[in-house]
Design a protein that fits this description.
Elements: H1 13-45, H2 51-72, H3 82-110, H4 116-136, H5 141-160, H6 165-220, H7 231-248, E1 252-260, H8 262-269, H9 271-288, E2 293-299, E3 302-308, H10 313-328, E4 331-333, E5 336-338, E6 341-349, H11 356-373, E7 378-380, H12 383-401, H13 404-407, E8 408-417, E9 422-434, E10 438-440, H14 442-451, H15 455-470, E11 478-482, H16 485-488, H17 493-504, E12 511-515, H18 517-522, H19 524-537, E13 540-546, H20 553-558, E14 563-566, H21 578-594, E15 597-600, H22 606-614, E16 619-621, H23 631-654
The structure holds ligand C2E and calcium ion (CA) (2 copies).
The site of one calcium ion has 4 residues, from loops.
Length: 655
């Protein structure tokens, strides 16, 4: 419909702007053609026609043109509002028609004064100028058409009727060329308009692609649950801060916060409640965090902070307290009250590390420290932590390079039935003598093996060795074997251990696996599946170090336990400490109610044995009855006990 419109569409601002810009480039050329051609005609007619016609009229017309020309200067460099652009273009059409008529009338009015040569010049002037200007108006179809409409018919009628065959031929020639020019013009303009329209579409597409990628970027950097920045964003921010501080100096602190008590809530009440607790925790941390704190959720129940500027120990502890106090208030969720708190670990730039990975690792180490020794509070990474870290790195390297089969062995500590004074089982305890580092305690290397992903291989090697040893014992002597947190959270570990038992041809009922509360809490579903596989085989499960973890009784109740081991930390003070005694009595009662056997660990003196027996404790493990011993010593011990047993039976029979 707009194909032959003689005005500029307001609904297509891009086209109007593009036309204006393209035309603005041609204007000097347009006026140059007009000026040069007109001056030439004025000159050839100067002495023949009156001066007002050869000089006055052209000057007047050029005054109009000059005014117009000055108005255009710089237009192509300026961004003009669309409505003004459209107005300008419309006035250009009108002016093109008016000037076309004016210059045509002027040149034709010179005709009577000239001879044949000058007549030819006039025809030449009008046709050449028109063609030149139409090409300058190529992007303004309406103006070009208006100009052609104003000039060509007048030209044809005028020169076609002069009675000169040459002029008539020129008129016909001009009519044909104008037709061809019109076709070129229309085709060119259609291509130009469609080019602008596809450029516009491309811009729209690029814009929507940009918006989409902005949105993707936002989502990729946001934690979907809490709406906080996510781990990726946190690490990016950390990188930025490190780069900035390294370039221009400055200090900041990285912190990692871990919720205490989240796992039991999640396991007991389900993931929907767990999610709500995390959302609430995120909101509270956000509310408690000041302007200088960048907060993110790193995953699970772990949050990260970056604190701008330097901070003293007191300031950091105050920030840590503020954050964990916010978390500690009970969370009310339609009838359920969840209680969590937060432990924080902090590390400083540049004191504790100049690279983001090192800083994060140190904050994480401080958190690990807080979780173990400072639960619910904050720990700031210190020089002593640094020493421990590098010691651990050394051990880790040695462990990675170790020949586990050759360097690892087990010691066996007896568990004694105080009624019969007999060893009913041995607990297998891992030992590592590294050729490079000497003897390293299991508490150290097991944790490192867990971190470096070697634990399941190590567990399998140790378990095979323990079973080979137990094979040498009488059938009524059991074997207790420790499983680590990672063992239990590893899919199919139950089946792998079952396969080892099968190969060792040992009665599974003799084997008891020691686990801790935290090990089950890490990934409850996988842990449960692993335990089920072992129980199905006939093995039993013991809860180790009871009383040191979070001791969630509701939780302990759900575990398929046969044995509870009271941690040795309760034993130290039982002679003097009534609270310890009461606690032990309670645990023994609890075990009885759960139908579990109860073993007390870490018993070192006869006095402790006597007190424990009065509290109802029958099974004891500790240095008093025997330190961890080699396989041969364990075998000798059993043999010795059997001889004593035979002797006393013989003595009883003789009485
Ligand atoms: P645990 O399972 O609680 O093992 C008991 C620890 O207490 C042993 O330390 C043992 O030597 C020590 N102990 C026993 N009786 C007494 C006593 O009367 N007084 C004192 N002070 N200590 C006593 P050990 O062998 O250094 O083992 C430390 C921990 O390393 C173990 O604690 C266990 O958690 C872990 N562990 C040991 N062997 C293995 C293993 O093969 N696999 C896994 N996953 N963990 C192991
Ligand atoms: Ca144990
Ligand atoms: Ca223990």
């Amino acid at each position: 419909m707009s194909r032959f419109r003689f005005s500029f569409p307001r609904h297509d601002p891009e086209l109007a702007q593009a036309q204006l810009a393209a035309f603005a480039h041609q204007i000097p050329l347009l006026y140059f053609i007009l000026l040069v051609n007109t001056v030439a005609v004025s000159v050839t007619h100067y002495h023949m026609a009156p001066a007002w016609l050869t000089v006055g009229v052209p000057c007047a017309l050029f005054a109009v043109c000059l005014k117009r020309f000055l108005g255009w200067i710089g237009t192509h460099r300026r961004q003009i509002p669309t409505n003004i652009a459209v107005r300008r273009l419309n006035s250009t059409i009108a002016l093109a028609v008016l000037l076309g008529i004016a210059f045509s009338v002027w040149s034709l009015s010179l005709y009577p004064y000239g001879d044949m040569e000058r007549h030819m010049h006039l025809a030449y002037y009008m046709s050449l100028t028109l063609i030149g200007i139409v090409f300058c108006l190529m992007h303004l179809r309406a103006a070009a058409l208006g100009l052609i409409a104003a000039v060509v018919p007048a030209f044809l009628v005028f020169f076609g009727t002069r009675g000169s065959i040459v002029l008539t031929a020129i008129a016909i020639n001009f009519a044909l060329v104008s037709g061809a020019m019109l076709t070129v013009l229309l085709t060119y303009y259609r291509d130009f308009a469609s080019l602008i329209s596809s450029r516009k579409q491309l811009l729209v597409q690029t814009e929507s692609a940009r918006r989409l990628s902005d949105e993707n970027f936002r989502l990729a950097n946001l934690d979907a649950l809490t709406g906080l920045p996510n781990r990726r964003r946190f690490l990016y921010e950390l990188e930025q801060r490190v780069a900035q501080a390294q370039a221009v100096g400055g200090a900041f602190v990285v912190g990692v916060i871990d919720l205490d008590g989240f796992k039991p809530v999640n396991d007991a009440f389900g993931h929907a409640v767990g999610d709500k607790v995390l959302i609430e925790a995120g909101l509270r941390l956000q509310a408690a965090a000041s302007e200088r704190i960048f907060l993110a959720r790193l995953g699970g129940d772990e949050f990260g902070v970056i604190i701008s500027g330097a901070a003293s120990d007191d300031e950091l502890h105050a920030i840590g307290d503020q954050l964990s106090t916010a978390l500690r208030k009970p969370i009310n969720l339609s009838g359920i009250v969840a209680r969590v708190s937060g432990s924080c670990g902090f590390a400083r730039f540049p004191e504790n590390g100049r690279a983001s990975a090192a800083l994060f690792e140190r904050a994480d180490y401080a958190l690990y420290f807080a979780k173990h020794y400072n639960r619910g509070q904050s720990t700031i990474f210190s020089g002593s932590h640094e020493a421990k870290l590098s010691e651990q790195a050394r051990i880790e390297q040695a462990l990675q390079a170790a020949n586990l089969e050759a360097e690892m062995h087990l010691m066996y500590q007896p568990v004694v039935d105080t009624d019969t004074q007999k060893t009913i089982a041995f607990e297998a305890l891992a030992r590592w003598v590294s050729p490079a580092l000497g003897s390293i305690g299991p508490a150290t290397f097991i944790a490192i093996a867990e971190r470096s992903g070697m634990i399941s291989r190590l567990t399998e090697i140790l378990f095979r060795k323990a079973l080979a040893e137990a094979h040498r014992w009488p059938d009524d002597v059991g074997l207790s074997f420790n499983l680590s947190v990672h063992d239990l959270s590893l899919k199919n570990m139950g089946q792998r251990l079952a396969a080892i038992i099968d190969t060792a041809k040992i009665n599974p009922a003799r084997i008891s696996f020691e686990i801790t509360e935290t090990s089950v809490m890490k990934d409850a579903a996988v842990a449960q599946a692993n335990l089920d596989a072992l129980i199905a085989l006939g093995c039993s499960i013991a809860l180790d170090d009871f009383g040191t973890g979070q001791s969630n009784l509701a939780y302990v109740h759900q575990l398929p336990l046969s044995k509870i081991k009271i941690d040795r930390s309760f034993i130290g003070g039982i002679e003097a400490n009534k609270v310890s005694r009461d606690l032990i009595r309670t645990i023994i009662d609890l075990s009885r109610n759960l139908g579990c056997m109860c073993v007390t660990e870490g018993v070192e003196t006869a006095a402790q044995v006597i007190i424990l027996r009065t509290l109802g404790c029958r099974y004891i493990q500790g240095y008093f009855y025997g330190k961890p011993m080699t396989g041969n010593e364990a075998l000798a011990r059993i043999a010795g006990e059997r001889v004593v047993g035979i002797k006393s039976a013989t003595a009883r029979a003789a009485v």
